[in-house]
Design brief:
- The complex is a heterodimer of chains A (218) and B (355).
- In chain A, 59% of the residues lie in helices and 10% in strands.
- Chain A is of the alpha/beta class and 218 residues long.
- Chain A has two domains: 86 residues, Methyltransferase, Methionine Synthase (B12-binding Domains), Chain A, domain 1; 123 residues, Cobalamin-binding domain (Rossmann fold, 3-Layer(aba) Sandwich).
- Chain A has a five-stranded parallel beta sheet, with helices on both faces.
- In chain A, strand 3, helix 8 and strand 4 form a beta-alpha-beta unit.
- Chain B starts with 7 loop residues before the first helix and ends with a helix.
- Chain B is built from 15 helices and ten strands.
- The longest helix of chain B is centred in the middle third of the chain and has 24 residues.
- Chain B has one domain: TIM Barrel (Alpha-Beta Barrel), CATH 3.20.20.210.
- Chain B is of the alpha/beta class.
- In chain B, helix 3 packs across helix 5.
């Protein structure tokens, strides 16, 4: 790797952490103009920046609005880089179905997890918000997903997470793992319903990686 | 189920005078779960003041909680200012669309009229029924979402979050008009004879930074608190999630009580601000109250009381947030019974032996 490439990767990562959308676009364009490898720019530049932002969130240096600004900067860079990705570089991806459970329309947390999963090499199908339990299962079976990721901010909708796990069992699809997260969700609750708990977006990526390694390959 | 020796009102009055009582006050915060007690759909709260009041009263008769409150969801104020709200048949209402889509419409935002706009008149009628029928025996509150949190619902959560960086002036404008709605509604609550309580979930350090809270939240919330206290009513405020970094800011607003989430260190809260405000909290509404057994609930209540019973300004056993709708009744009874079993004055040796 040349010095210029390394500097640009660092700069892309910094743009995300510094919430600088315009500069992220500019740096990504410079990177592409130099004909450097686009996948690397996402992996070691933008995703690295989101990971650092996630750490700052854990350390309570950053909060939800900061993460939203970081993700905007990341998406700005992605828009420039995406057309330059070589197909085979995307490789064989693990598939995840993600969404906010029925009864809740808060999707900030879900969107962050989605971004971080995507930039960590997962293929993510986003069902959006207020999603009925059956839809998660249908979509996961249809696309051969190894993982369903469920989010909620509202205590009132937690039963719908349990419903997803139950339906998977009823349909003999319980090789598909379920991970849950969001404000009111506790490790105890996740265990009770037979799901896996993730405290926040960056932990969700680590958990997803562990879960798909355990999963039987389809 | 154990029996109370005093009504919540008798208990509150005696505690305020420093006299003997039967037990610590305890409020499980049943919220929309009162629909399960009363036997109605949650959506009936959107149209019937009578049902809101009757469900609150039914829950109070069943559990004996210290305090009833008219508060169905976070959105009536934003809705009254033009936001769209979705109403599931039997679940809590949610924000569907903010009041304005583009910041160019900011000057279109007008403060709500509590007696005319949206569901606010229904809530005010419910307050009248509540205070007429149980006001002599239990404290009656009107819930209100604070001006900062409400501003998020006016402009959209994502949009307002970004505007704090990109266009602070617009955020201040939204908070200002939001505050005017809050003040009018708080006045309406007091005019019915109830006490306003403020919920400010977006102020949480789990959501926004202390820096943003101080810049955009605190000044407006403080003006609301000052308005209410100037009329002689004490204000209790609840903020979900982490709050330790903003405790001093909250106390400086002049509130009388602070209700904390279960993710907060209750003992640390007592030690830092318990000399200036009453502390309320913080049994876990999800893992313990919804997901646990009555024995788990009893243990959690004892644990909370051990940490905070000696708060100088007073302590109320409470859930860390509104209970999930499907919380088992037996767990709510278990919470009240634990308070009765602990009794008063609280004896730390007895608490230890109960575990």
């Amino acid at each position: 790797m040349t010095d210029t490439q390394e500097k640009l990767l660092q700069s892309l990562s910094d743009c995300v952490v510094d919430m600088d959308e315009d500069k992220a676009t500019e740096m990504a364009q410079t990177y592409v103009d130099n004909n450097f490898n686009a996948y690397k720019a996402i992996d070691q530049g933008l995703a690295d920046g989101m990971e650092r932002a996630g750490k700052l969130y854990e350390e309570e240096e950053y909060y939800i609005p900061e993460l939203l600004m970081c993700s905007d900067a990341m998406y700005a860079g992605l828009d420039i880089l995406k057309p330059h990705l070589d197909k085979e570089e995307s490789g064989d991806k693990h598939r995840v179905v993600i969404g906010v459970v029925e009864g809740d329309t808060h999707d900030i947390g879900k969107n962050l997890v989605k971004i971080m999963l995507e930039t960590s090499g997962f293929e993510v199908v986003d069902l959006g918000r207020d999603v009925p339990p059956m839809d998660f299962v249908r979509k996961a079976v249809e696309i051969g997903a190894q993982l369903i990721a469920l989010s909620t901010l509202m205590t009132t909708t937690m039963e719908n997470m349990e419903r997803v796990v139950e339906i998977l069992k009823e349909e003999n699809q319980d090789n598909i793992k379920v991970m849950v997260g969001g404000g009111p969700i506790s490790p105890g609750f996740a265990k009770k319903i037979g799901a896996h708990y993730s405290k926040d977006a960056s932990k969700a990526v680590q958990l997803a990686k562990t879960l798909v390694q355990e999963a039987v390959p389809c | 189920m154990l029996a109370d020796q005093m009504t919540p009102m008798e208990r509150a009055v005696a505690l305020a005078k420093g006299e003997m009582v039967d037990r610590l006050p305890c409020n499980p915060n049943v919220a929309n779960g009162v629909a399960r007690v009363y036997g109605c759909k949650i959506s009936e709260f959107n149209t019937s003041a009578r049902t809101i009041a009757d469900a609150q009263i039914a829950s109070y008769r069943r559990f004996g909680n210290d305090g009833v409150r008219i508060f169905t969801d976070l959105f009536p104020w934003a809705e009254a200012m033009g936001a769209k709200v979705s109403f599931p048949e039997d679940n809590t209402a949610d924000l569907a669309e903010p009041a304005i889509k583009d910041i160019s419409e900011i000057s279109n935002l007008q403060p709500a009229d509590p007696y005319k706009d949206g569901r606010l008149p229904i809530h005010i009628d419910a307050m009248k029924y509540l205070i007429d029928e149980v006001g002599h025996e239990v404290g009656c509150a009107g819930g209100i979402v604070g001006p900062f949190t409400n501003a998020f619902f006016l402009l959209g959560i994502k949009q307002l979050s970004k505007l704090m960086f990109k266009n602070p002036e617009v955020v201040h404008q939204a908070c200002e008009v939001s505050l005017e709605t809050c003040i009018r509604y708080a006045q309406a609550i007091m005019d019915q004879g109830l006490t306003p309580t403020i919920s400010e979930p977006m102020s949480s350090c789990t959501v926004v930074s202390p820096k943003h809270f101080r810049e955009f939240g605190a000044p407006y919330i403080k003006r609301l608190v000052e308005y209410i206290t100037a009329k002689g009513k004490p204000v209790t405020m609840h903020i979900c999630g982490k709050t330790a970094k903003i405790w001093e800011d909250i106390v400086d607003m002049g509130i009388a009580g602070f209700s904390i989430d279960n993710v907060v260190d209750l003992k640390a809260c007592k030690e830092q601000i318990g000399d200036r405000v009453k502390v309320l909290g913080h049994v876990d509404p999800s893992a313990v109250m919804y997901g646990g057994t009555p024995a788990d609930v009893r243990r959690a209540v004892i644990d909370c009381v051990q940490q905070a019973w000696d708060t100088p300004k007073g302590y109320v056993i409470m859930s860390g947030c509104s209970l999930p709708v499907e919380t088992p009744f037996e767990n709510i009874h278990a919470m009240m019974d634990a308070a009765r079993e602990i009794g008063y004055p609280v004896n730390p040796d007895k608490l230890n032996s109960m575990l």
